[in-house]
Specification:
The protein has about 70 residues and is mostly helical. It is built from 2 helices and no strands. The mean pLDDT is about 75. Helix 1 runs antiparallel to helix 2 (about 35-65). The protein has helices at about 1-30, 35-65. It has one domain.
Length: about 70
């Protein structure tokens, strides 16, 4: 029971950080004109976003499926 409460708190923190990251991505990348630096930064943020999702799936698998 203690482990599940800890995981719920971490999940809420993670989701809030992820939403802040998404808002930051929308504000900083998309309104600019599309030169090479912006495209490179967009690809970098996309890789970071996929990495965050992969970490979240791993934590979910480790805590809930394995028990």
């Amino acid at each position: 029971m203690k482990k599940s409460w800890k995981f719920i708190i971490y999940t809420i923190l993670f989701v809030s950080l992820y939403l802040i990251f998404e808002i930051f991505l929308d504000i900083t990348i998309f309104p600019r004109n599309e030169d090479l630096v912006v495209i490179f930064a967009f690809i970098l943020f996309l890789i970071l976003r996929l990495l965050i999702v992969a970490i979240f799936i791993y934590l979910f698998y480790r805590n809930y499926i394995k028990g």
